[in-house]
Structures are given as structure tokens and as C-alpha cells.
Amino acid sequence: MKIGVYAGSFDPITKGHYDVIKKSLKITDKLIVAVMNNSNKKGWFSLEERKNMIKLLVGEENDRIEVKSFDGLLINFMKENGADIIIRGLRAVSDYEYELGYAFANHDLSYGEVETVFIPAAREYMYLSSSSVREAAMVGARLDIFVDDKIAEIVKEKVKTIKG
């Protein structure tokens, strides 16, 4: 069984993230969407909120997708979950250059047990990032081009609490 892990902060999950999730299901038997607990990144949403947004989007009924959280080394998380494929979405050549070093390191740290698969972003999502969603939300811009409608409502509510 091929188990893939798509790790990220997903703060919030975007249409680009969701596109990578759907494409990942074509090459894995099971996909774990791993939400990073990164204390170095100051995000908008708590770990549980981010996990819940992903579950809302992918649907609880999809038994091939599991949403989990982790901190520490991705390789350790992979081993704990019996996963052998790291999924990485790429928006631009600069993403590839950045991710390639991690791919080699993860391969070596796993003694060759883990491979990284790069999935290019769909053209319409190449510019998209969670930070661009947050920036757009703060100025009241439309969010439908960035995130699913269900996620947009959650983001708008968060803006209200941030702005007071």
C-alpha cells in the first residue's frame, strides 16, 4: 500500500492545496494531510481549526484521506504512520529549488525508504498562498478565487475577531 503525506501549515487551506490533495489521490492508496504545528510561524488559525477546515473541505466520508497533526521531523512522522511518499506542491521554479534540498535530505534521513513526489500547481493557482489569502481578507477583497466558499466564511469570521 502506498501511503503519501502532504504536509503544510494550511493557514488556511487554499484551492491550490486542495488541488494537490486531489492529484495526490491518483498516485497513493491513502493520503495523510499532515498539519504542522510550527511554533516559529505565527498564523491565524489554531492547529485544531486548521485540521477542521481541511476535514470540512475533503469530507469525512473519504476513507482514503486522513487529517493529522505533527511537530518535529517529517521523516519521524512518516515512519510512525507507515508512509513512504512525501507529496510537495510546486508553484514555481523557486519552489523546486527550495524543495529539492529537503527531498534529498529526507531520502537520506530515511535510509532511502522515503521518496518525494512533486506535483505542479494548476496554472490558476500558481500565485496562490495562504498568506495571500490572509492579506486579501484583511482588506476585504474577494476570497472565492483563493479558497472554497466554506473556508472563505471561516476566514471572514476570523478577520472580524482580529479587527475587533
CATH class: Alpha Beta
Q: Please give the order of strands in the largest beta sheet.
A: 3-2-1-4-5
CATH architecture: 3-Layer(aba) Sandwich
Helix fraction bin: 40-55%
How large, in whole angstroms, is the Cα Rg? 16 Å
Number of strands: 5
The assigned structural class equals alpha/beta
* DSSP summary: helix tally: 6
Morphology: globular
- CATH topology heading: Rossmann fold
Order of secondary-structure elements: EHEHEHEHEHH
Strand content: 15-25%
Binding site for ATP: 9-10, 17, 89-91, 99, 125-131
Site (Transition state stabilizer): 17
Subunit structure: Homohexamer.
InterPro entries: Cyt_trans-like, PPAT, Rossmann-like_a/b/a_fold
Jot down its keywords.
ATP-binding, alpha/beta, Rossmann fold, nucleotide-binding, EC 2.7.7.3, transferase, about 160 residues, five-stranded parallel beta sheet, single chain
